[in-house]
Amino acid sequence: MYKTTSLIKLTAAFLCAFGILFTACKKEEIQGPKGDPGANGIGGNANVVSTNTFIVNTSSWVADTAAECFKVTISFPTLTQSIVDKGGVKVYRQTGTVWSELPIATSDLFTQFGFDVGNLYLNYINIEGGLPGVPPPTDRYRMVIVSEAQKNANPFSNNGTYMQIENVRAIVK
Prior knowledge:
Elements: H1 2-24, E1 54-56, E2 62-64, E3 69-75, H2 81-86, E4 88-95, E5 98-101, E6 104-106, E7 109-116, E8 119-126, E9 139-147, E10 167-171
Antiparallel strand pairs: 1-9, 2-3, 3-8, 4-5, 4-9, 6-7, 7-8, 9-10
């Protein structure tokens, strides 16, 4: 019993010593002299335009029984062949105050998008198969189109740097 009590006291003393050692020491930061401000940067490589939103009503969705999904097609003339070939599109859906990027899965229901020249396609599917019971609710969406202004012939041979996207535009109907 004496050894156990001594061991407990010794362990407690070491724990206290380590606690004091690791919490009592602070590194003192010495501030150097303040340097001169740097030069203003030159223009960036992207042009971002603020976006508006568009609403897709529940009644806009059309059931496609062969594909087992609800679909909607939205005309966007700004989706050009150049965007299809060299650009990119991102689509977001607003739920409450939160914007989420498509594709989005909500339980077993999945919303995704596709696009081609002049059109944006939204699909609403049941990932377990079969047509979803009802079309999605009326929601607010926004689309951002990333168009390329200049592309390196071989983006991976430019001293390790990657292709830069020169022009980013947000497009809304």
